[in-house]
């Protein structure tokens, strides 16, 4: 589980666009979940990351931060433990599984009752 000292959600959004004749100056954006997590690595360069964040409005960023906070609150389990739990559940439900044990054809309400009705 992630410790509270590692949970650092900082979202700095300062949109400074100077529309001079020669340059457009972007401010820096920081979105840090943990010290070792680097979200900007997903993007080809810092400029792409800044461009992505500049397209988001304040509402989108707040939703993103809330989603990240929720994801951090979820308890993480090792794959070996969750795989064993899933295997136990599947084996426990195997006798009720219609794909493994097909339902009796006589109990099927959509099946034809008999081929010949007149005799």
Report what the structure shows.
Keywords: Cell membrane, Lipoprotein, Membrane, Transducer. It holds the Pfam family G-gamma. It is found in: Cell membrane. This is Guanine nucleotide-binding protein subunit gamma. GO terms for molecular function: G-protein beta-subunit binding. With 119 residues, the protein is mainly α. The chain has a domain of 64 residues. 34% of the residues lie in helices and 5% in strands. It has three helices and two strands. The protein has a two-stranded antiparallel sheet with strand order 1-2. It is elongated and about 80 Å long. The N terminus is likely disordered.
Q: Calculate Rg over CA atoms.
A: 28 Å
The low-pLDDT segments are 1-37
How far apart lie the N and C ends?
72 Å
Overall outline: elongated
Characteristic terms for this protein:
single chain; 119 residues; mainly alpha; two-stranded antiparallel sheet; 3 helices; elongated; disordered N terminus
SSE map:
Layout: E1 10-12, E2 30-32, H1 46-55, H2 58-73, H3 79-92
Antiparallel strand pairs: 1-2
Give a quick precis of the structure.
The protein is mostly helical. It is 34% helix and 5% strand.
